[in-house]
């Protein structure tokens, strides 16, 4: 459990959190508070990828930022990701796979964005 100062911190899973590939790739709604980010860190998530620029996770706590990376790959709502978007996501996953870290993707309102990226990865895992 991550602690800041002397107060005990708790963690809760982000809304709709689930492992798509156990211990490797997870999907969820965008984390909305530090207890949800803490949950990701405690469960081995090393990189958070968000697909929308209009909603950002609470990454302002130094104790959190030191344990998890965050990348935005902006995908237009209700539109499929571009080939370049998928290439960026795959590069992030490969980088962290090499570091024996977990990768994670977030989707908001339009699960199609996340599903398309994950579907592509399941066809081409390496």
From TrEMBL:
This is Swiss Army Knife protein DSP-PTPase phosphatase domain-containing protein. The lineage of its organism: Eukaryota, Metazoa, Ecdysozoa, Arthropoda, Hexapoda. Residues 16-99 form the Swiss Army Knife protein DSP-PTPase phosphatase domain. Keywords: Hydrolase. It holds the Pfam family PTP-SAK. The keyword Membrane does not apply. It comes from the Eukaryota. GO terms for molecular function: phosphatase activity.
């Amino acid at each position: 459990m991550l602690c800041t100062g002397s107060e005990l911190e708790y963690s809760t899973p982000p809304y709709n959190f689930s492992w798509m590939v156990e211990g490797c790739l997870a999907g969820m709604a965008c984390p909305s508070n530090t207890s949800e980010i803490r949950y990701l860190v405690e469960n081995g998530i090393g990189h958070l990828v968000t697909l929308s620029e209009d909603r950002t996770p609470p990454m302002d706590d130094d104790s959190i930022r030191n344990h998890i990376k965050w990348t935005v790959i902006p995908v237009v709502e209700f539109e499929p990701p571009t080939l370049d978007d998928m290439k960026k996501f795959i590069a992030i996953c490969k980088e962290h796979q090499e570091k024996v870290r977990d990768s994670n993707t977030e989707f908001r309102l339009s699960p199609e964005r996340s599903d398309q990226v994950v579907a592509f990865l399941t066809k081409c895992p390496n």
